[in-house]
Amino acid sequence: MTYRHGDDWAVGMVGGSAVRAEIKSAARCVAMIVLSAILAAGLVPLAPGFVPMAQAAEEEEALSSQVEEAELFAADVNADEEQVSNLYDTNIEDANCHQLVLVVRFAGDTTGDGGTGLNAVSTGSSITNWQSVYTSLNGQPLSRYASPSLYSYLKEVSAGRCRIQSIVPQMSDDGKTVTYLTLPGSRDSYVAHSSVVEAAVNAFNARYPEADLSGLADNGEGYISNVLVIPETGDIVPEVGTTLWPRQDDYPGELWVGAKGKAARVGSYTIVNTTHVLHTGTIVHEAIHAFGAKDLYRAATVQLSNHAVGMWDIMAMNSGSCLMRPLFITLQDCGWAEIEEVEPGTHTLNAPSASGRSAVKFKSPYSDSEYFVAEFRSANTDTGNLSALDTAYDGFTYTIGGTGLVVYRVNPAAKDAGNKGDKDYVYLFRPNETVAGGVRGDGEGDLKHAQLSAAGTSSLGSLDLADSLGEGAITLSNGANSGLMVRVVSNDDASLTFELSVAEDEGGWKAPEITGVALPASGYYDTKLVSENGKVYQLCSAFRKAPRIFCLEGSTRSDLGAPSDCSESFYAVDLAVCDGAVYLCGSDGIRTVVWRRAESSWSVVDEVTVPATTPVLGVAARGVYLYADNFGSGGSLYRVGAGKLSKVGSALAINQVYNPRIIDRAGSPVVVFSSGSETKMAWPEAEVWKESVLHSGTSSSISTTESNGVTYVASSDGEHISISSITADVFDTAEVTEVFPKPYSVAVAARDNMLYLAVVESGTQLVRVYKASASNLSRWEHLGGIVVTSATAVGLTVRDASLFCATVDTLDSPVGLRSFVLPSETGDKPDIPSGSGGAGTIVPGDGGSDSSGSSGTGSSSEGSGSGGAGDSSAGSGSGGTGNGSSTGGATGGSSGAGGSSSGSSSASSKPAAAKPSGVWKKSGGRWWYRHHNGSYTRNGWELIDGFWYHFDRSGWMQTGWLKVGRSWYYLSASGAMKTGWLKQGRTWYYLKSSGAMAVGWYKVGGDWYWSSASGAMGANRWIGNYYLKGSGAMATNQWIGRYHVNASGKWDKTR
Question: What is the number of other CB atoms lying within 10 angstroms of the CB of residue 404?
Fold first, then answer.
């Protein structure tokens, strides 16, 4: 291409002599070195560049004055261009994308002329402000005293995938000055950001009519990667959110820059005024937007609070020339990285500057859409090295806290708005977060030190699903615990190893193991389930694109597709299955069409010129029926025949028909719908429609099912849920609002004499399923735990002995399917899950009232059981059996017996006796124990001076949580194994006499307690038929609300 220096056009991307310059000016360069030294002394922070939203004015002024003082301090140094010439090389030869830079001023402004504005020379230096700006764009640091530029920063963080060169046709041949373009309007005359860009491009085309910029086109459509417009703002700094405040956007129309036939198209543009352009961080922040990065600061962010991500990503916060890396989610959004998904287990990450993965993602079993990322950050601790990224210094707010693992949540549904919407796209977990403002988190806590490390805070999350964000849980966007826990095992500056755990699913809802095709990952807003003859059919509805239908047979899912003529114009669809044939209906606002799929192909049955807001299909007496609601004004019922739709009766003479459904009432089709302030059912008799009111109240969600000759209708109005039972002769409706949370949507299914109801909770969008006997619809109970933590649409059906629940949240989230294995139930009496803590566990009230030991669950393959430790009461625990190690205790009290095992003992098991005495030795800050014969214990336990210690494979004493076999132990800071109660944060754990962490049911001091699989003691909750009080102790002989528990603690009656 050609570009211009002065008044001549020359060939090549970069011509003349390569410009080597320093940062802001020679004096400012030395000032940065001085500031670096001051920073190391902890006296003042570097001035921030771009901090999201309004900074506190007085703080910004104070920070600016500190920079000025440092510059004055450096003014005595005789710095000139020669002294700093080796800081940067601006001759870029490996560019793969480009940015056009246009420097402009407004009508009547002469800034830039006569050595003013960006062309001014700093005091005591021969370097102009423009040389500083140009270096911030294209500089390649050659010294540790040179801060990163846009080019060097993007090249490093993208691992070389983005090498952007900024082209400045207005720059002089010697690179010291820039010729301003004068816009025709005054500064205040430009209201829209795009109007400034358009005026700048027009001014450039008028000034340089022969400019050949075709070489800047970075894609096949002729677009430049970005156009940076730098408007002169003088001493008047733009206010936040005004036209000239830094921003990135896409030009809304068609705009070309350059000579005709030699031009490049303007798409992405950034505006960075002459005040902010002196901060490299601001230039970088805005430029990364052009590649797809989102703002990760909240709309209400202020200087030092309400941060979702903060200093851990330049898209949330930056500090001028001291730059932090972007998170890997930002790199992925820009197309510069791909985050690998992993399962629970142990994983190793490498430093970002090294080869190999630096971040991995993983999902919670309770969400199909959101996911979490664990990312290793290796901090630079040499504060004098200005060229390094991720500098850590505790005395400076805008740098990260150190080397370690950060964990953050990604919510794809919030991506478009970044963190500036009502939900966070990215939220980074940190210690001591508060939740006074709600489940989103207040953006407080120790965000700077959010990193996990083996030597510091090593774990994050909770396996107790009752815990919240404020209690240290890794949560989903709606505040529900994800059930995930992350623990750093080891790390140094080059790599980090962590362990990912997930709470055992006590609820039973799981993603079924399915082969074949996957459900859609995005683009669908509704889903429905229908089952017949051992097959589950799932309809996925989209907006302005064809639906998709899937069939699950056994564990194999196939894609039935959709009719080729069921195009995006069909905005509303429904599904029915009858005798193995699949039927689909849809309306395009003019007509309603029915298709049938038999064998392996779709064909049109027929169509009617009656539109429908919600066309529905239903099966009655082995016949398929269509109801087209005529946009809610009455509507008509049709029988679906062989190639024909036959109208049944006359049109329904009701003006308001919403959310219709077709049910089978004694072999006849009946339409259930919401109308006005009532929910009704209507059916044709001859040419007349009969109708009955099921219940008062408008139903925003209606779902139906049939079992044993009874049809059930579940409906909700956003406040209440009603269940109607309909037979040939009678119908009855029960309102069961008291049992359920406020509903957003419902779906119902039946098996034998049991009814199942899926409820999307309004507000939280949690999905739970409840069950009730058909003979007692006033009593509903939870079935399992949470199905998913966020959904807007839900479907439910039964196949054989499994219940399937389909969900979808937003258009950006995947369609999901969970299953639950149903127990054998007769439905003639309430069936509350037992309080069993697992195989072999003693349940309160069922025996073993004085035993403090619990039997193990060792298997033949591993043979590791957890033996109980006796106390002063009579009783004994037994170790697991099998060909493996036993972790049964050997330290029972006066009357209790320790665990026993038929397996062989390994080095990881506790020895029955202490080894010979010795002496403690310390080396490199770590302890080991030397026996008098010179040996030492490795990879095992040792009893020393009455306390148990555990040593790793190298013989080093271990501290903190330790997993041996299948049991967890806690070793204090001294290394001594703890027993009894242990409180960490807000969570209580009980460590048995053997030291093993208690899980399930256990007895302490005459009271029964229960701990989850994570060891967290339960409180204020039901565990099967038993209730745990606030202290954690099981309640006995008392009323818990409407339920009474007897002397053994078991629920026995209801009032």
Answer: 26
The 10s digit of each residue's pLDDT in 573-626 is 999 999 999 999 999 889 999 999 988 899 999 999 998 889 999 999 889 999
Side chain identity at 507, as an amino acid letter? G
CA 697 to chain centre: 37
Using CB atoms within 10 Å of the CB of residue 341, give its burial: 0 to 12 exposed, 13 to 18 middle, 19+ buried. Answer: exposed
Q: Given CA atoms 294, 296, 300, 302 in this order, what sign does their dihedral have?
A: negative
Q: Which of 430, 388, 426, 425 is nearest to 406 (CA)?
A: 430
Q: Give the DSSP H or E segment for 1011.
A: strand 1007-1011
| 361 Cα distance to chain centroid | 10
CB 670 within 8 A of CB 707: no
- CA 817: distance to chain centroid? 19
Question: Looking at residue 70, what is its pLDDT?
Answer: 34
Angle between helices 280-289 and 150-157 (to 10 degrees): 50
- Hunting for tokens 């089952």 — which residue is that? 531
What is the secondary structure of 343-381 as a DSSP string? Answer: -SEEEEEE-TTSSS-SEEEE--TT-SS-EEEEEEE--B-
193 CB neighbour count, 10 Å cutoff: 20
- Secondary structure, 3-state, 412-432: HHHCCCCCCCCCCCEEECCCC
The amino acid occupying position 790 is: S
With beta carbons less than 8 A apart as the criterion, state whether 1049 and 1009 touch. no
State the virtual CA torsion across 821, 823, 826, 831 in degrees, nearest 10.
-120
Identify the helix (H) or strand (E) that includes residue 287. helix 280-289
* C-alpha–C-alpha distance, residues 618 and 628, integer Å: 12
Under 8 Å between Cβ of 175 and 131: yes
Which tens digit of pLDDT belongs to each residue from 277-313?
A: 988 999 999 999 999 999 999 986 655 678 999 999 9
- DSSP, collapsed to helix, strand or coil, labels residue 708 as coil
Distance (Å, whole) CA 500 – CA 517: 28
Please answer whether residues 548 and 540 qualify as being in contact, where contact means their C-beta atoms are separated by less than 8 angstroms.
Answer: yes
Greater confidence, 783 or 53?
A: 783
3-state SS class at 1035: coil
Strand partners, 193: none
Residue listed under structure tokens 């049938």: 596
User: Which residues have C-beta within 8 Å of that of residue 348, sequence separation ≥ 6?
Assistant: 495, 496, 497
Other CB atoms closer than 10 Å to residue 258's CB: what's the count? 27
